[in-house]
Amino acid sequence: MFMRLATKSLFNRKGSVLLTIMAMSVSIFVLLGVEHIRGQSKQSFNNTVSGVDLIVGARTGSLNLLLYSVFRIGSPTNNIAWDTYQSISNHAKVAWAIPISLGDSHQGYRVMGTTTDYFSHFSYGNQRQLSFSQGKPFEEIFDVVLGAQVAKKLNYSLGDEIILAHGLGKTSFSMHDQNPFKVVGILASTGTPVDQAVHVKLQGLEAIHLDWQQVAKQSGDATVNEQLQNINLEPKSITAFMLGLNSRIATFSVQRDINNYRKEPLTAILPGVALSELWQMMGFLENTLRLISGLILIAALLGLSAMMLASIKEREHEIHLLRVIGAPASFLFLLIELEALLVSLASMAIGSAGLYLSLIIARDALSTDFGLHIGLNIFSFSNIIFLALVAGSTIIAAAIPSFTAYKSANSL
User: Which residue range(s) make up the domain with 24?
Assistant: First the structure.
């Protein structure tokens, strides 16, 4: 009876109640959406690189090295001599090394020169190795392996030919069109910057930067590959490299040796530590978004309280009737609280459903445009806590109109 009475009372004021539910639904949608995307982004961010013990680059800050070597953002302060890379990669405590050479692009996507060790040793997430959705790793000089989003966005498939451009802009007037690269592999989606990269052999990058007046220029001409076999395509320098060690106990000693390397100034960083530092720098923005969503919720709760309070005078006849049939003043207090809680629960259901549908619709766009792989499970522990806080805040916000109804009942 108590629940039925509260429901009928809300239906009698369906106009104002519906507007209040809509306002609260929007605020809950924003609150849950911000928290869910924040949590998913942090998880995706921390999963960017895994299993790499050290990242080495020219002397610079740890965040700058992380950004250009892992996220392909920014540019290095300097390159590393190839002899230096070979010397460190042959260190007794080093298990494997992955060279990275940056500088060119293809339609706005960064080109990364590396070796096949990249596909064997680089991992992301919880030690997940790279896998191919189509094709295989590069073998020939002018083979290219595309990240999942590059292939999807540019609609490439195996066997297609692409031309690299000098520099990092989407529009370049310096095209390496002497020899196009052939797509031989497309990586499976990872939700990391790997999806946005174009991978080629180090020798391929060296080949397109040769003085082509000394080499045949006919695209696809067999003499080109024959002549390239007789040319030393070993790079003189690279941008950075990643290291995997035989034992993680040796990480700090190897890092110290690299940072004190005498032949040229180097910086070796622990990717996990650098990722944590970078995320902490984004803490201000994170807290600002939470504050904004919280203020929106407070405004909606105040609107709910104002709506319930305004309805008290309209319900004086109803209150009088309930008192006549023997309802205590506390009954009216609890009735108003229950009505507010029902409004809040309806708003939670609508807001959560709206967020779930929005994620389904925008999931592909978030993945393609921002590299964010957002899960559909919106009821994480933190979001459940937020919903419980919303319910508690609703009870507090409804205390004023509930107490007004209580006083009104006692005065009769």
Answer: 2-45+282-410
